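Q: How do we represent a protein-ligand complex in a form that can be generated token by token?
A: Start from the inputs.
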Amino acid sequence: MQNSKLSAVNFLALLALSFIFSLSVRYIWINQFKDVESFKWNNELMINTNDGYAYAEGARDMLQGFHQENDLSYADSSLSTTTAFLAKIVPISFETLLLWMPAIFGSFLVIPLMLIARSLNQDYMGFVAALLGSIAWSYYNRTMIGYYDTDMLVIVLPTFLLWSLIFNVAEQKNRYLPLIPLFLMLNSWWYGQSYSLNMAMIGIVFIYAMVFERKNLFFHKMLIFMLLAIAGIFLWLKIILMAALFLAFHFKKELFNSKIIFYILVGVSLLVLATGGFTPILAQIKGYVFREAYASDIYETMKLNYFAVNQTVREAGQIPFETFANRISGHTVTFLLSVIGYVLLSLRYRVMWLALPMVGLGFLALKGGLRFTVYAVPPMALGASYLLFFMASKFETFVFNDTTLRNVKIAFISLGTVAILYPNVKHAQEYKVPTVFNQEEVKVLDALGKKAGREDYVVSWWDYGYPIRYYADVKTLLDGGKHIGKVNFPVSFVLLNDQISAANMARLDVEYTEKSYKDLFDSNLIQEMKDYNFTDVEDLLVSMQSTNFALPQKTRDVFLYLPNRMMSILPTVDLFSNLDLKTGAQKARPLFYTTNNFKDAGDKILLGGGIELFKSGGKLKIGAQTIPLHEFVVTQYNQQGKLEIKRQVMNAESQYSVIFMKNYNQFLVLDKRLENSTYIKLFVLEEYDSSLYEPVILTPLAKVYKLKK
Ligand code: MG
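Then emit the structure tokens for the protein with magnesium ion bound:
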């Protein structure tokens, strides 16, 4: 394969072209939704990733210059800091900034891809790799417009690091050495979990040096800078040390023989060891060995058995090979060709073996879950592109006319490029991800923010935590990063228990959560048992059914946020509190069925799922069983927009009821416990106990109540 190194101008032109291509594919999403009013807020499309709201809240807090103690804000995180900085200097709205940042930053991947190829003198190959890599399936998914998350640089920065290594190996000049620690440190700062990848990159440079460049001092220098970059010392000290070493290497070359450089390398390694640079690895080993076990009273040894969140998500087991291949390259064939191409590329340019940690991490997806595939995208894109050029070069063996050869090659590579891009562009067209919230819900949160103080709590399921905090600037008990069984239990309990228990628990959990930040206790529930003198957790929970339950001093307002979209996950929410905390055993599963898809069949309504509702006689058929109905309830908004409830009691003894939410065109089939739950009573029926709750905002899609006590 011939070399191709373009002039700087032509190189930049190709780079710009690939960047524009990457943005254009991402624009498809905007084009699909730009007229959907319900996806907009402040005249701009909203973001489509839940976690993004955490960083958005952090950025907003940094811009306003303050935030509340223990509000779980992501202020000062890398993405929030970058966003706040850009918000100050870029003349676009904050919403537009959030929407476009992932697309722009994500598209920066074309830069290191093309730079890597340029280090190999293969500019055209870099261009094709940039086209593919920037829009490859999983990479697209995680850097699409509106996917406002750290993902936007999670691949870009390691690819820049890879380039800095390849470039240094190619040039072997001291002056380029600082690029390596720069990207290594940027990568660590941007994404804390990049630690393992950074270590693996150090490891691969070490192995590469041992195998290919044993005598080459330049590799020792590279390792010295990489190790310094991860040393656990102050940033300023790191920079001074690096600058001193750099200047010494550069201007006092003669002082550094192999022995001295080796000693420096050993010294830096010891520094990393001593300052905890390797601690995460050691901690992992230790974690399996030591377990804490000592206590002074019964509450300290008490263990409650909560429901584990990972029990609700599909086990992160093996994924089908086709899915894996699609995510990395867009198509199984492209993927297989990419692997072959990557091996050929690395055989031709052995420096490409340095990409192995990214390949390896990406291939871990086969065992560890889809989210890793994205790491293999850059090296596989380079592999696919290389194979195209490699195959095109084979025409040289039987096409001898220069012009014909040139044309055949161009045609082959163009067609090949279109073929590998096509499945990925098609995926982008079909991947119609909705925004996290819709406008009506955001209006509710915006209004809530104006009524609630920043120290007030809004109790809701964790899925809504970050967006609630972003739009309403309040505190929450749960969010996308705080949702283990222990913290989910009280919120699940509030949503699915009777109104009195719910009000008591909501107040208790809010006050104890705040207290836990000061008194540093681990479990609200156990601390409550201690303070209320219960030794059996069931007794504490039962005592909450009383209006006389002695609540702690009220320090702030507490709101319940109840959205319609929670309806479908109610049985999952229930799993977290409908259990015996002493044994962890689930109690009887509720009957809860909802549908918008039903058929009128004359004397009965077919609700789907084997459930039929008889129009007369007050009976319900579930599978083969016919059971009497407790009641049939219809909810409907009247002319004034007020919810009206019509109920027909059929059989007082029965445990099962049907609710028809007329304006939602939705049937609910549910048992008595769920019918009496706070969520159903307050959201579906608006039958709230006015001594406990005060309605604050009532809209069809979301309702907010305030605790009176
Ligand atoms: Mg706040």
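Residues 592-707 form one domain. Residues 402-430 form the longest helix (29 residues).
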